[in-house]
Here is the input.
Amino acid sequence: MKTISQLAELVTGAVVIGDKELKSTGIEHDSRKVEDGTLFVCIPGIHVDGHKFIPQAVAAGAKAVLTTRRDLTVPAGITIFCVPELQAALDQIVPFFHDYPARSMRVVGITGTNGKTTTSYITRAILRHAGYKVGLIGTIQIMMEDEVFPIHNTTPDVVELQHTLATMRDKGLDYVVMEVSSHALAQNRVAGIEFDTAVFTNLTQDHMDYHKTLENYMLAKARLFELASQPGTKTGKTAVVNIDDAAGQTMLEHASCQHLTYAIDRPADLRATEINVLASGANFTLNHASFGQMALQLHITGIFNVYNVMSAVGAALAEHVKPEVIASVLRDFASVPGRFELVKAGQDFSIIVDYAHTPDGVENVLETARKIAKRKIIVVFGCGGDRDRTKRPIMGRLAAKLADVVIATSDNPRSEDPEFILSEVEAGVNETLGSKHHEKITDRREAIFRAVELAKKDDIVVILGKGHEDYQILKDKTIHFDDKEVAREAVAARKEEV
Here is the structure.
């Protein structure tokens, strides 16, 4: 516990109205999570103003509120902790409140457009096999050893993130493996975290609605390497960087710590050679000065997964994991939910579900599918609403170029009209389609059923965009929707018709 005065000392210009020596038992910006003694943070959001929930927070036990408004009216006995700028104050006080939990664990941060999730899962598996207790914070979920918790953002905000890290520390975890998004870096959600190893996977077009330019997006990613290079309580920090990617050089320029580079096409500290991509997996040789050569036969396929493996191996080497431990894990590693995941329902054709939602992701998955396809590739895909519009026609062009049958459909339209989104996708599809079969089916369930209906023996149905997600975000509601479930239902329905 910390007193309000202790917290206020960290913030220039802070004013406390009420009991300065009040001890806070927690910090929350969600009134539903408030407990007795909580400091309630009043966030003036775009849609909802947190100040409106002060009565609920007080009723739940809040004893103080953090706000930018000195003239705030609060119930008697409630302390007002007023600061000039809310986010800057949270960046200071929240890590301090939790006694900087990241300092008590090793932290591996992974950033990049694609590959973060697979890299984080492989890294976690390697560290656990090495005997460490490991937590994971990522796109799919939060994991504390074998315990699983839901997550709403790839990298949570500073309040939720620091609370999660404190819980991991208190459970005695040795490591945290984190996916670190560009939004999180730009918004400093990772305030108070010292990264031991920072990993860069790749950079392709995404989030232009937020960052506006690719340069801004790249520099947001580079922030991770600046953070890993800052002096702190830890030593021996390492930047693990893919130098086949043009943005890799920028990451290295922002990293004044140790460098460990990896590549396929260029000379690097860690290289993959003799690569053979198969339907059943990928065979290649890893080369590094610490172990010479390591021949691998993986159960995951695709050239993109060769890069993901190298990024995880680079992180493991930076953390001084023995090569034999690394090799053992890689030979057994099977899959990550929603990442080139096979759906098996007794059908005589393949169904692959993947999270790919960027041009590069679509291209990687479909090119990999092409290498293993015996017959036609049928792709079902869409683009999310309230997100980067510029990638929609690009993804449409790639789908039409690389697949044999294209079914464009809805994918988390959010506040946008699904038909409008699809019109922008269609512009790209029609540029490249030629004489190939194409359908536009707005209803995603209907689109998946149609793809399964069209599939013949040895075809591959590729369903893109949602991967592990089990929901569909519509304008006025969020509904349950799981691509894998729907695909199985479609196969079952097809069997009944026969």
